[in-house]
UniProtKB/TrEMBL annotation:
Species of provenance: Sphingomonas sediminicola
Location of the active site: 60
Keyword tags: Decarboxylase, Lyase, Pyrimidine biosynthesis
Function summary: Catalyzes the decarboxylation of orotidine 5'-monophosphate (OMP) to uridine 5'-monophosphate (UMP).
Regions crossing the membrane: none
Name by which UniProt lists this protein: Orotidine 5'-phosphate decarboxylase
Amino acid sequence: MNPIFVAIDTPSMERARFLAAQVREAAGGVKLGLEFFSANGPEGVASIAALGLPVFLDVKLHDIPNTVAKAVEALAPLKPAVLTVHAAGGRAMLEAAKAAASPETRVVAVTVLTSLDGGDLRSIGIDSEPREQVERLAALARSAGLDGIVCSGAEVAAAKATWPDGFFVVPGVRPPGGDLSDQKRVVTPRQALDDGASILVIGRPITAAEDPAAALSDIAASIRD
Ligand SMILES: O=C(O)c1cc(=O)[nH]c(=O)n1[C@@H]1O[C@H](COP(=O)(O)O)[C@@H](O)[C@H]1O
């Protein structure tokens, strides 16, 4: 399986179509998140899915169990390959999300956003380092029957060691020397895969490049070498 999912973060349908066409040959799939979904809704997702690449729908659901279950049911006709919920929603919410999803959708739990560090966790009352919190939420997601988690490359090896058949989504991926922007816990694509990532979510290093197809091809080559 080609592990590179390109994050198509744009409100513009036209730009999204352009980017999907640019990465179509060399990506394993595309990730559509809150920016695209808020602007284009389920119809927009369906129209990108119609281009033929697997779609990872990243809406990071986090609400009471009934609301999340109803939202997952409403999204089911889109048949996403992967769907995100927040692990911090708790066990009952995670179980409800998984029960409402169609069997072909991998439901994965976001643990600690890659834009956060230990100081950010302390500021919201969590007195653990990101790795410890990721391990705690990975255990919760696993026991709630989810397919895997989203975590940074800095924690994926530890999480995989305790959940060998889990599905591990790693965003916050940058080529060596790449611009971090708002990401804090970052690794290279090669490192993330070596440490156990199942798929990589890569956005701006590809989509903000002058030639997105060439940027993707360079990253793909760095993984093969
Ligand atoms: O769930 C995600 O995909 C996600 C989780 C996380 O912890 N960090 C994170 O960056 N993401 C997403 O991954 C993408 C990263 O984009 P770039 O920083 O441009 O590569 C964005 O679409 C984020 O919404």
